[in-house]
Amino acid sequence: MLPIVQLNRAEPAPAGRAAQGLPATSILVRDVEPPRPSATGAGGRPQPDDDDTVRLDLPRKKQPLVTTRRAWFAAAGLVGAGCLAGGVRLYLTPAPAPPPAVAPPAPTPVIAQPPPLAPTPVREFVIRAATEAEILHHTGGTGMTVFRFAGDHRVLVLDFPTLVQQGMMLDRVAALIEKAGAPRNRVLTEDELLTTIRAGGDTVATYYYGHDYSAGSLQRFFDLVDREEIALEPDEQILRRLLRQEGWLEPGVHRGLISIPAVGSNADITLSARRTILHHELSHGVFFSDPDYASFVQRFWDTTLTGQERSAVRRFLGSEGYDMAYEELMYNEMQAYLMFTHDPEFFRPDFVAMSPEHLSELQDEFLRGMPKGWLHDALAATPIDVRPAAPGNPLQRARSVHRIQPT
């Protein structure tokens, strides 16, 4: 910083300053001392130092100080011009381009992984849909074949190669559900079952030729088995696994399971007998799977048949080993025999004290009122066969057309 200069006064420059090349501006006057007392020399004349003339102590060959804003601006302009020239040069010389900005790597998106899928359970039993005709003509195999009836997928058909295999799986269920003389509130042990079968003159193979049960009845059977800790036979364990696979052991399931033996299982099981057994049992399957049809059958039993006709049907079924006190069993078997068992080798109108004409009238009335569906169409297409049974070969077991015994 420059020191501050005290100005006592400013005087205009003498006329000759311009000629001397000095700027025609104000003159900075340094500190002026007041005149000292004069010293006189001899004769009273003043000495050279006593001169009253004011002498200015001007700087020697120093550049004058800039004291105006114009001069400051001029000086600043020179400096700015120099800077500008340098700046222009800097501007005109392009600086090296900065390296391209490298974008940071995008974060790897976090994708929520779905929970692992539960492994698809292996289906032990392969079930294929089949029509009545396809089931009828099925042959081959040494084990049980399971069909889903094409006319009503709620019906499963078990096709057994032998009557013994069928009996080992289903005879104990039959004893609980509908056989006369067996308890309804508990499952027979294996020894008790064999005693019951022999008491009726049957064997494991001939106890029933065809079986039919609702999902509810099968559920009740296995519930009692668990409660009583009954040991199941291997074939009965297979049945339970099949029902579990199909979800039949849950409450409120309306399904029907039926069974038939293979042709040649014994001398009585011909292709014609297999056809009659299958048709008869399929009507039971629909009864179990379709609540509307079951309700219709009950109304027909209660309101269309007379008391005398119901008694005749009940006696006939009792003679075949059915529990006559089980009312639902009575009207379920009524519809299967009277409406869907047309082969006289297995059922004839006189078995229930009816004429063929009256039975035909009942069938027509039944057809008019029954719900539409496969069974309705089957009845419409199959009139009753009133041929007499072959002499000396009357029906002895008609439950699902069980067996024919010579007299």
Q: What string gives the helices and strands in order?
A: HEHEEHHEHHEHHHHHHEE
Strand content: 5-15%
What integer is the average pLDDT?
79
Strand sequence of the main sheet, in spatial order? Answer: 1-2-3-5-4
Number of helices: 12
Strand-pairing-aware structural class: alpha/beta
Flag low-confidence runs: 1-35, 37-58, 64-92, 386-400, 402-407
Separation of the first and last Cα atoms: 149 Å
Q: Roughly how much helix do the residues carry, as a percent range? A: 40-55%
Beta strands, count: 7
- Give the overall shape: elongated
Report Rg. 62 Å
Please describe the biggest sheet, giving its number of strands, its sense, and whether it closes into a barrel. Answer: 5 strands, mixed
Protein topology:
Blueprint: H1 69-92, E1 128-130, H2 132-136, E2 145-149, E3 155-160, H3 163-177, H4 190-199, E4 211-214, H5 215-228, H6 234-246, E5 256-261, H7 271-289, H8 291-304, H9 307-319, H10 327-340, H11 356-369, H12 374-381, E6 395-397, E7 403-404
Parallel strand pairs: 1-2, 3-5
Antiparallel strand pairs: 2-3, 4-5, 6-7
Helix pairs in contact: 3-6, 7-8, 7-10, 8-10
Properties at a glance:
disordered C terminus, 7 strands, five-stranded mixed sheet, alpha/beta, disordered N terminus, 407 residues, two-stranded antiparallel ribbon, 12 helices
